[in-house]
Amino acid sequence: MNTFSIAIHGGAGTLVKGMMTPEKEKEYRLALEHALEGGYTILENGGSSIDAVEAAVKRLEDSRLFNAGKGSVFTAAETHEMDASIMDGQTLNAGAVSLISGIKNPVSLARDVMDKSEHVFMAGAGAMEFAKNNNYTLEDDSYFYDEFRHQQWIEIKDTDSFQLDHAKKKDSKFGTVGAVACDQNGNIAAATSTGGMTNKKFGRVGDSPMIGAGNYANNETCAVSCTGSGEYFIRGVVAYDVACLIEHKEMSLADAATEVISNRVLKLGGDGGLIAINAKGEIAMPFNTEGMYRASKSSNGVQKISIYK
Hints:
The chain has helices at residues 22-44, 49-61, 106-116, 124-133, 141-144, 147-156, 230-235, 238-248, 253-268; strands spanning 5-13, 82-88, 94-100, 121-123, 177-182, 188-194, 215-217, 223-228, 272-277, 283-284, 291-298, 303-308. By secondary structure, it is an alpha+beta fold. The chain has a single domain (5-299), classed as Glutamine Phosphoribosylpyrophosphate, subunit 1, domain 1, CATH 3.60.20. Helix 2 runs antiparallel to helix 3.
């Protein structure tokens, strides 16, 4: 039987040991473990990688600790605009949504775009109409309200500033969430979800919903989910770049992922990290920041839950 495994992330950034209270750190570790188990149980029971990544990301979206779903940051208009994407490495089918509001689990809407439409990417009012047609119920604004998030926004509202959630030097490190998985049949998948940037304007979209930039999966190479400064990840087509190095330069998963994060993204001026997996169940989780919320579990018995370098 193929080695099956899963990896998840909850954002990268200025996660300096000692700057977070022990209670808060424990809360994060428990949330990561909860999401990891949600996806791993599916793999263990013979389920598909696509189901596993959706399940893991949904659990991260349901936590107020991460900038996705329930924990999404506030835009300049004091609203929430969420993005998500998912990709199946066996078929290269993919689905993505952007600039959506009121949807509890954006990753599930992205999955429905993949499974129930002829399209890959839907945004804004059209994506919301698609959600309505597929019987999604919209959550009240209160579901997405978090006092800490609101304070983050109040600090910079009415200015031209915006901030990547992980860029603050305080206890405010959250970010995009994602998962990659390899199932018992050697099929791989990736999913990514985010609430974007605090105080963002003009319908800004980052890399998370963009296939090839923040999310990618192909059984022949790897599955990747990214987190970081989205503008740079878009310019570097980061998720696909990892796959390209494996395909055309015959690099290992670890070497390709490290080259992209520790060299190529830095040259562009970006920071962040990614999680990647291949059809052998091997995992890579490089980042060029002080930390990245990350966890992985494999059928070979190895489990890791980490925050710092």
